[in-house]
Fold this sequence. Notes:
The chain is mostly helical. It has a domain at 26-93 and 178-202 and 225-331. It has helices at 2-14, 18-59, 64-92, 101-118, 150-153, 157-172, 175-200, 208-216, 228-269, 273-288, 310-316, 322-331; strands at residues 124-128, 135-138, 145-149. The protein has a 3-stranded mixed β-sheet, sandwiched between helices. Strand 2 and strand 3 (145-149) form a beta hairpin. Helix 10 (273-288) packs antiparallel against helix 12 (322-331). It is globular.
Amino acid sequence: MATTERIGRLRQTFTASPVSVSRMGSGWLETIRTAVGGAGLVVVPVLLAGVPIIPIAWLLDIGIGLGLLTAVVAGPLISAILGPVLVDRRVRRLHEAALDERPAAFVEYRVDELADEVGVDAPAVTVVRADAANVAVTDGYRGPRLVVSTRLLSLPAADRDAALRHALVRLRRREALFTTALLPALVVVETIALLATLLVGRRSDRSPADRRVNRIHGYEPERERIPAPVYAAAGILLWVCLIPVWLPAAAGDRLFVAGRRRAADAAVSRVGETEREGLANAVEFAGEAAGAADWPPILDRLSLVSMADDETGRVRGASRQEARVRLARLRSKVSL
């Protein structure tokens, strides 16, 4: 009898449909992409910590290996300590919406209900006054928190609930905890990359219109003391030094952050057709509506939709088509 059941299982395995085999293959591929992206994010604080620690270890003659081990431990640990503090300080600077008691209680009630359905403890909720239709989820030793914009709450109920469910799914899977812990290192890399890009693209020459206005007013500014090629050379040098850290950060953004957003899309879609359609509407509206400047760039990696400008997106190495690909997958008839 056992032999017959074993043969039956083998037959089912070998006669599986091409769609099932394809899904199994894509599942393994997604797991590998997530692992590689997560490893890239972890490498970033290690490399940043190694910049001062390894030379100091060499100068003190205590061994480069010990310095490297210290960087491996200290880098992610310092980043994990500073991550929740950095996010909380930025959230406190946002304009918190002054909701009446009933609307505030309703928002907390909906989050509690959705958290029960997702299977996670309900986080604290901060409603901010912003034109951006977005929601971010943070986590750490200070506790989880949802940061929700008033414009997202003004969406239809199905769209709003789908966006909140998306954030809670990411909280349940510990993606918010992982990303929040590594956020300070990513912010350092992003800031230096933006500075290097600014130096490379800096232009010192004035347009003919500027020269004409200066002549009219009898004012001719002094020539710049630092020529533009010097700025460009400094920017290129800064980029060359940054490349070893930027590459894993960009890989982590593409493979882990964007990949886990798509995985949360699939989890919400599997709940039902209403949730799938609502999430698609929320993603589409968030991408097309004005108000992206109201959303802090530091919350992008923790948000339903990234709202970074084109320059910041290029510096991060993120795909410009991420939102379009997500929307196409949600609108398609293929099950996620």
